[in-house]
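This is your field. Have a critical look at both lines of this record:
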Amino acid sequence: MGAAPFLAATLPVLDLAVASVAAVRDAAARAGRFDAGPPPEPERVAAAFASDRLLRVDGAPVDGFAPLSGFFRTADGWVRTHANYPHHRARLLTLLDLPASADGTATRDAVVAALATQSAQDVEDRAAQCGAIAVRVRTEDAWRASAPGRATASGPPVRTVVREDAAPARPLGSGPRPLAGLRVLDLTRVIAGPVATRTLALLGADVLRVDPPGLPEIEVQHLDTGQGKRSALLDLATRDGLARAQGLLEEADVLVTGYRPGAIEAFGLRLPSGAVHARVSAWGDDGPWAGRRGFDSIVQAASGVALVEGSRGGTACAPEDAAPGALPAQALDHATGYLVAAGVVEALTDRTTDGRGREVDGALARTARALLAAPGRDPAHGAPHVPGAGCVVDHPARLDGRDVAATTTRPALDRLAGAPLDDYPAPARPWGADAPRWAA
């Protein structure tokens, strides 16, 4: 899609990226009643999708993955682990019967040795039981034939269902900020959900992200995806925290959740009539893996994407005969985030005529299926081009209690209603630094 091989890969990643951002542009144009304008600029889109690789703190790049996250050989294939968060790292060590070292980590060599003697399927099964994050690396065919693969084999990446409940219809604004005056309660983490809510903030919404105080976010990650929002802490496991969260939700137009299906509902939050509820999950809300944890890299590994991008170029060989690889960006996360944002904007626009609530459901595994099914594979691709300096912007920021200079990417949307978009409404606020209340 264009001459410059931004996001170059075997799979047509740039096509997926530009299409997902174009979906937001089109939804915003319909909501704000303006001309959609030209297609998104591929270089800006590519930069936004690879934002973690372009992120700089005091001029230094940031490593997005912890030492115990990655591909590991097993006795009969490969697994991919995710241990960026301390609680996931601890569960992985427990799974492998490894002690934590004095500084709270175990060496990668010890994990390599432990996994080398085990079955990939056994590791995946036991990880699911104990809450660790590890999946068997599969071929496309193996994923399609599996029960969780079949569950994600139909329907688009994002699905919308109209509910029966309704409230008085609420009009949207006109122009490039059609969501001005609307409130979005953001209960998401990591990338896909925060990208969706960051996009809603770009379109004018008052977005308040709420996290539990006992589950700290990786602050540099929040720096990369928290633009335009405020960030507060509430413990929904306490009576007061749940009551305050319910009060916020009662005044919200949109609730966006990024935890496993049912995790937020288990606290007893009640969605107000007419609200839009958007969900982002790894595996969707049906099928045998609906309740499992997952991240972009994990979905790539399980769905066949990793072997397509690996050393054998997508041939249908056994996992033990191929070295897995990865997409040049966490494209499943970003694309799903933009598609969910587009679905929310469409739902809010449709709500202006009937006042009815809607469910918007996005799943990384369905986005992976769409990418694998898309035409235009290029096994002979070269290395991805790095987007230019015009795609990033510098800001002062607070990170881990200190003042830093942060370099983050500009919005994937380079213009709306003919007006250029050079940056988000505001840089990311320090994680958890705001009061749990609406701006106005």
Q: What stands out?
A: The longest strand covers residues 158-166. Residues 331-354 form the longest helix (24 residues). The two ends are 42 Å apart (CA to CA). The mean pLDDT is 93.
